[in-house]
Every structure is written in structure tokens, then in C-alpha cells.
Amino acid sequence: MVSIVVGGHYGDEGKGKIVSYLALKDDPKYIARAGVGPNAGHTVYVDGKKYGLRMITCGFSNPKSQLLIGAGVLVDIQRFLEEVAMTNTEGRIKIDGRCAVIEQEHKEADKGANSKKIGTTGSGCGPAQSARVNRVAKQAKEFKELADYVVDVPQILNDAIDAGEDVLIEGTQGFGLSLYYGNYPYVTSKDTSASTAAADCGVGPTNVDDVYVIYKAYMSRVGEDPYIHYLSDEEIAATPAFKKLLEKAEKEGIEGTSNQKIARVLGEVGTVTGRPRKIGSFDFDLARYSAKINGATKICITCLDKLFPENAGVTEYDKLSAPALEHIRRIEDKLGVKAAIISTGPGIYDVVDLRDGN
Ligand code: GTP
Ligand code: IMP
Ligand code: MG
Predict the structure, then answer these.
(1) Which of 165, 209, 280, 343 could bond 29 through an S-S bridge, CB–CB 3.0 to 4.6 Å?
(2) Is the whole model's pTM more than 0.90, yes or no?
(3) Is the peptide bond before 226 cis (omega within 30 degrees of 0)?
């Protein structure tokens, strides 16, 4: 069984949390990181400890799984080695020798005028990708410090698939950030759909069984993107959940525009800058389109507790509040796909798992 997890909106949907849950619940033999590179920032809580991961899959939560980084991924060597130590995964993590490596010059170039215009993460991914396309980027197998980690990821995964083992592939960013399908040029340096995640790891499309597309219960966005519609004062006034959040922010004396106040009570602030993210209501059109292009077989809705706080930590469908259930049903209707997992908190087991047999 091969499953892929990707983001259905603009990244930060909580893919990391879902992957850390699936890793423990479904116990796959191999978990492979796909996607762009260390521009991703997944936050997960494992055994009560907070981890911020940019290179290693959040599936490290399962100590029995073997961890891989697919050939399509850009590698920041220093960051990779730091995360191996941080997660204590030495011995069970390997990377494909053909991964392109991000070097200092790429990080410098990612501070330039065009990167500022797009609002990139500054991680060097765009310039390294560009060097790769120009066939001048170095590959992981050329670096001595990676010698102990280098393997042929597609060979390992395809052997596992032939042997009937389970494989989980973790994508990064979100559909709206795809180089092909997002709001170009306000996008990342690669396609972010499930097909590309499979290609990143050398898994053929006919071998993929499930595509999990992850959506947050509302929208948040970092970076500069003039095409996105953000919550207006009128929309806030017309949406009870947002109205309540605004009232809460005002009670707490939070300052700024209504959008910024809501971002702060939701905890949607940039981890580096501390600036509030831009908040919007659920974009059904984008979600429907991304479910189609990703070939979604399962959708997950995260941060339900942030929009409807009375649902924090709920693990049973019947215990979800009426407004939360109405929101979920509306998403399911518009997308034509049933919710498989609903996330009600940042903890790994803060989930309602509606998949067969659960
Ligand atoms: P990218 O690869 O950077 O797009 O990240 P991501 O999709 O893995 O999401 P990220 O970890 O950046 O952001 C999600 C945040 O929400 C993290 O801080 C999670 O701990 C948190 N989170 C995830 N699911 C839930 C949830 O259901 N409820 C709450 N309250 N927090 C959640
Ligand atoms: P880059 O991927 O660093 O080149 O950034 C390009 C665009 O994608 C910018 O708008 C970033 O804010 C956005 N982006 C890249 N990675 C992530 C992510 O993991 N979460 C959210 N936004 C991201
Ligand atoms: Mg993130």
C-alpha cells in the first residue's frame, strides 16, 4: 500500500501532524520525504516535545519506520545533519545520492530583489532548483559528510512495494504554491502535487493507492501574493466563528487590523518574523480544483479546534459541535470527497479517524 500526503491550499495545513499520526497508526515500513526542500517548516509534537522539521519526515514519530529523502528533494546538508541529531534517527535515515544540494551561494541569491518580491522563505531553494535545471548543482553523493546516508531510494521503495510493504510519502507546501498550478510568480520552485511527490521518490503512478489532501479549516498564507482574497470586515461580521475570534482578540487587547487580530488569536504568526499571517475563509474553489488535480482519495481537515474551540481534543465524530459538523459537511459536499481524518489539536492523537476499520 502506497499513500501520499500533500497540501490542498497554500502550505502550513498541518501535513506534518497528519504524517506523524499516519506513521504511528498505519505503521508503514518506509516513510519518504518528497517535495521541494528545507523551505518547508513542519511542526509536530512527539511524546509531548515540539519539533520543527525542515528536512526529515515527520514520520520519525514511529521509531520502527525506515526514513528516506527522495531524489527530487533539495538538501541543506547542515540542516539535515542537525535534524538527524535532533530526532535521534541516525541509522534509520537515508537519502538518495541524486538529491541536489543547496549551497551558501544559493542562500545568498535567495535574498535578492525577486525573492523579496515573491516573499520566499530565503532557504535557497529557488536558486538551487535553478542550478539543478541548469545542471550545475552538486549532488548529495559528491559530499563526504553524506557518505553514510546515501542510497538508491527508488530501488528501496520499489523492492518494498513488490514485497507488499506499506510506504508513506510526505509532500510539502500546498497546491496553491505549485510552480505549475499556483498564482505564478507567487509560487515555490516546483510543482507540489501528488504526482510530483511520487516522482520525487521514484514511485510510479500505478503503484499509488491513496492520496491524502490536507486542508486547514480556514486559510492562512505567508509571502506576498496579491491574487489572494483575505477576510474582509464584512465577511467577519457575517461568519459567526470569525466574529467570535475577533471578539476574543478584542477582549485580550490585541491590536491591529481585524485580519491581524484574528491571526493572533489563531496563533497564525510567522515563526521567524512573528508577524501575523494573512487569514481567509475556506477557499472551496481552490480546494475542489486541488482535490481533482491531486487525485484525492481521502481528505483531511485540520485546525477544526482553532475555528470552533469547543472541539479541542475531540476524538469522536458524534462529539463534534453542530457548527463544526456543518463546516465539514459543506467541504465534503463541495469537494465530492468524504473527510477521512479530522484534526482537533496539535497533538498526534487529537484526531477523529473516519477511515474504514477505525
Ligand atoms: P509546510 O510543509 O510548511 O507547508 O507545513 P505543514 O503543512 O506541516 O504545517 P505546519 O506544521 O507548518 O503548520 C501547522 C501548525 O498547526 C503547526 O504548528 C501544528 O502543530 C498545528 N496544527 C496542526 N494540526 C492542528 C490542529 O488540528 N489543531 C491545532 N490547534 N493545531 C494544529
Ligand atoms: P520559496 O519556496 O522559499 O521559494 O518561497 C516561494 C513562496 O512559497 C513564498 O510565498 C513562500 O512564502 C511560500 N512557501 C514556501 N514554502 C512554504 C511552506 O512550507 N509553507 C508556506 N508557504 C511556503
Ligand atoms: Mg509549515
Answers:
(1) 165
(2) yes
(3) no
| Sole residue written with cell 477523529 | 352
Closest ligand 2 atom number to CA of residue 126 = 4
- Asked if 42 is an active-site residue, the reply is yes
292 CA distance to ligand 1 middle (Å): 23
Rounded CA-CA distance 150/71 in Å is 10
Q: pLDDT-based confidence at 140, cuts 50/70/90?
A: very high
Is the backbone peptide bond immediately before 309 cis, with ω within 30 degrees of 0? no
Tens digits of residue pLDDT in 277-329: 889 999 999 999 999 999 999 999 999 999 999 999 999 999 999 999 999 99
The conformation of residue 13, written as its DSSP 8-state character, comes to: S
Tell me the one-letter amino acid at 293.
I
Of 156-165, 228-237, 281-290, 321-330, the range with the lowest mean pLDDT is 228-237
Ligand 1 atom nearest to CA at 13: 7
What is the identity of the amino acid at 91?
Answer: G
Ligand 2 and 41: CB distance under 6 A? yes
DSSP state of 27: -
Could you tell which of 114, 130, 177, 279 is best to mutate to test the pocket of ligand 2, judged by most ligand atoms within 8 Å of the CB?
Answer: 177
Among the listed ranges 76-85, 88-97, 218-227, which one has the minimum average pLDDT value?
A: 218-227
